[in-house]
Amino acid sequence: MDLPLSSQLINLAAATMLLLSFAMLSQRRVLSLVNLFVAQGLTLAGSTLVVAYTTGHHELYVSAVFTLLIKVGVLPIVLHRLIRRLSLQWDTEPLVNIPVTLLIGLALVIFAFGLAQPISQLASTITRSTLGIAIAVVMLAFLMMITRRKALTQVVGFLAMENGLFFAATSATYGMPMVVELGILLDVLVATFVFGIFFFQIREQFDSLDLHHLEALKED
Hints:
Blueprint: H1 5-26, H2 30-55, H3 59-85, H4 98-122, H5 131-147, H6 151-173, H7 178-206
């Protein structure tokens, strides 16, 4: 039996989210990493719009609009300005080389599908088949955070992990309550500005954004 068009679009968005996560995991150029984050935000907003139209949950339209405004509009502008002002174009060599990181990512995807399978069987949403991918996106973003040295790439990993959490919420329950979603988006926006200030402090002190310099700090 053929899947409805809406289910096909949702599955396509889920596959795109997963591919973008692997692309971000393998990316060394910070500017390209931010652009991939923008593409992930666009995919997330598009998927949310499809779910909203299919299910009649009109609050998801608002979620999609805020996702576009903040994750495709405001945050990329802030990150691009930080990259220009800090003259940060390339990430340093990650803690684990790229091929090994991708193999670990593949193992995490398999684990995520195994973890989501019993939950998906109990769920009744049209997006239940994408729950495994949503969990995988969260895990891949977390993996990117812990395998990168640059502060800015770790922040992008944090933002990508929030994308995965939102996608998981949409897959499991058609999204979180609107108040919670708006609160999280505001927290993410404020956190990015705070991280920007933190970047300048690190750059001024160490002339680098490599976080291993912080290990040199000792208490007097």
